[in-house]
């Protein structure tokens, strides 16, 4: 098994670098079910972020791409059940990283995850903390 950094997967998916993309493609195309590639949870979250922010890929397409990676027999995805649960929430319009954070907390036994982010608290998986102003 070989670990894959975010930039290798990006080059494979986006095919935007004439030097690096063919190398990434050759490496990933050589992976098999018995000799797979490994994507850590950090790599998956970073992958989503880079696709959305740097490449302006729509959220729905990012979800499809990550689901494709999850379904690939030649890849092992760290915490794949957490990634799948977070992608389900993301399909509903929530941020993927926030969904991963909330799901990690839930699976660790947390009743809730506290946040100052109103958007992250929108689906109920996180509890919004309100700052108290002292005048």
Task: Describe the protein.
With 135 residues, the protein is mainly α. The chain has a domain at 2-78. The chain contains six helices and five strands; from the N terminus they run E-H-H-E-H-H-E-H-H-E-E. The protein has helices spanning 6-14, 20-29, 41-53, 59-71, 80-91, 96-107, and strands at residues 2-3, 37-39, 75-77, 113-115, 126-128. The strands form two sheets. It has a three-stranded parallel sheet. Helix 1 packs across helix 2 (20-29), helix 1 (6-14) crosses helix 3 (41-53) and helix 4 (59-71) packs antiparallel against helix 5. The longest helix is centred in the middle third of the chain and has 13 residues, at 41-53. It is elongated, with a radius of gyration of 17 Å. It starts with a strand and ends in a 7-residue tail after the last strand.
Specify the helix fraction band. 40-55%
Distance between the termini: 58 Å
Uncertain ranges? none
Question: What is the residue-averaged pLDDT?
Answer: 93
Strand count: 5
Portion of residues in beta strands equals 5-15%
Morphology:
elongated
Q: What is the structural class?
A: mainly alpha
Main sheet overview: 3 strands, parallel
Please compute the radius of gyration using only Cα atoms: 17 Å
Give the helix tally: 6
**Main sheet: which strands, in order across?**
1-2-3
- Element-by-element helix/strand order: EHHEHHEHHEE
């Amino acid at each position: 098994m070989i670990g894959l950094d975010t930039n290798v997967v990006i080059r494979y998916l986006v095919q935007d670098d004439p030097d690096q993309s063919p190398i990434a493609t050759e490496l990933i195309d050589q992976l098999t079910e018995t000799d797979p590639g490994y994507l850590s949870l950090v790599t998956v979250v970073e992958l989503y972020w880079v696709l959305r922010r740097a490449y302006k890929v729509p959220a729905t397409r990012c979800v499809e791409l990550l689901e494709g990676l999850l379904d690939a027999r030649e890849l092992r995805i760290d915490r794949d059940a957490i990634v799948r649960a977070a992608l389900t929430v993301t399909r509903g319009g929530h941020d993927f990283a926030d969904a991963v954070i909330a799901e990690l907390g839930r699976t660790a036994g947390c009743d809730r995850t506290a946040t100052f982010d109103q958007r992250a608290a929108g689906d109920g998986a996180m509890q919004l903390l309100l700052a108290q102003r002292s005048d």
